[in-house]
Amino acid sequence: MKIKSQKDFWSGLMFMATGIGFAWGATNYSFGVAARPGPGYFPFGLGILLALLGAFILFESLVVETEDGEPIGAWAFKPLVTIVVAVTVFGLMLPRLGLVISLPILIGIVSLAGDEFHWKEVLLNSIVLTVGSWLIFILGLKLVIPVWPPFITG
Q: b/e for 64-100, b at 16 or more Cβ within 10 A?
């Protein structure tokens, strides 16, 4: 069988492998029952859904004809390295500087990965995502994440 879309073929394989990996990893946790799901219930279901989505995309890449075969382009190393560095810096800064300082720095560094950079958009994204993260993770889920640096909170 001929691959008619390289992009869809490889992304379908990636989704399937990731989904199967998550579903397999979730089998190490208890599932519980539908009324009281355990810690393995949700990741197993998401893994299966991701694997099914990957299978559909993979099937489509073998069946649906494309004009040029949608070849895969060169690796974009600048965005890849920038995002990995940003997440690493965020992980190192969060316990020391807190969410309110670390998250805007993360957003600023990640914004450098793209071709366009606008300070107003970065500032707006930083405010919205920091407030949203505080509402969801600190207030809503009651996670113990430092909001402010220890030198401010004492």
A: eeeeeeeeeeeeeeeeeebeeebeeebeebbeebbbb
**pLDDT tens digit sequence for 32-67:** 888 888 889 999 999 999 999 999 999 999 998 888
Q: Is residue 83 within 8 Å of 110, Cβ to Cβ?
A: yes
Q: Which residues, other chains included, contact 50 with Cβ-Cβ below 8 Å and sequence gap of 6+?
A: 15, 16, 18, 19, 22
Q: Yes or no: say if 103 and 133 are a contact pair by the CB < 8 Å rule.
A: yes
3-state secondary structure of 105: helix
Q: How many domains does one find in the chain?
A: 2
Give the integer Cα–Cα distance in Å for 15 and 112. 27
Extract the tokens encoding 48. 């299966």
Q: Is residue 32 helix, strand or coil?
A: strand
pLDDT of 124-142, one tens digit each?
A: 999 999 999 999 999 999 9
Structural domain range at position 20: 6-63
Same domain, 59 and 81: no
Phi then psi for residue 32, to 5 deg, are 70, -150
